[in-house]
Amino acid sequence: MKAALDPNALLESGAHRLVLRATLTPVAGLDRFQPAGFPEIGHVIYDAPRSDGRTEKVCIIDSAPSMANHLETVCLNGPHDPSLSSALAKLPYLRCVTGTNPKNASTHELVVTSFTEGHRLASSYFLEGFRLERGDKVERRFAEELHERFGLRKVAKKSHLLPDGWWNVFETVFQYDPNSLVHGIFFPKWQIRIPRLLTAVHEAFGAMRVATSGVKFDRLGKSTSGQPIFAKDEETAAAIRSTFVLDLGLARSFGREARGLNDKQKALLIALALWKIGALLRAPFRYRSGCDLECREIEMELGSAKKITLAPDGLSIEIGKYIKDARFKNGITDVFWPQTELFKEAVKDEGEQDAGEVEEDEVSE
Fold this sequence. Notes:
- Helices cover 23% and strands 34% of the residues.
- It is an alpha+beta fold.
- The chain has one domain (7-342).
- Helix 8 runs antiparallel to helix 9 (319-325).
């Protein structure tokens, strides 16, 4: 068990993937829980075919993109604190900052980080900003630096990556923001896509919909809605499970011999993925008011080896050691946006009125 959870042993195992299945239950002995809702369709329940010819109702509690965001949240000091957890100290990442003077760091305001921005390193908040170096603004946009570091070739108005350039991409992304390789990243203008190293889904099996309702009270009568009654859906299920798939083959592909990432750098990516899973499952699993779950056990599957059952605290990784062994060249990279560029006023369409502006003939007595 111990060797299987060692990132170096996982890389050497030859297995294509590591699968972890965590069984969760609602806290306090409750039956109902609230899945994520999707626009226009609400909660998603589908019929999944089984080998014996029957079908089973499966509910999507959280999708893969949603789970990816949850796995980033545990890397922060709190849901409203964008600074990185002390356990991940010295792990490189990017911050987008703004202000009127790039040299005066005390006046900079944080906008987003590569752990909170949806497109991670490939976000326009970083690509279109200017990297700060010793307090000075580099006089070209960060996208131009990455374009050069990746070794992209310009043909007419398009940029192309030759096969050997992928090693530059892996090295560069790793040095600036290794979490982007775990999460997956896409540069659409350059046709560079790296799939998720870690994919997670959260589902309920044997699910059934529970239709309930609520009412909104307007105590002071300040609205015209009165006291509307609204419908609300919850679910029950025979089993609730989060499944994590770690693509070990993809991690190995990030380096070969002296090109791309070395073994210690690839081991960090595996260690970071395992650390994130462990932190997620040990913390309160509550992403909505009506969805308060806790982890009971974790089942591990590695290749053809026999399945192993772990306790919820069985995914403890000394992540600091792997960060140190990776020998990063970069720390936190600040990308600067002048306030005049970041906070531009919206251009008013012809005939559009400012908020609060009312024509005289629109005033009713």
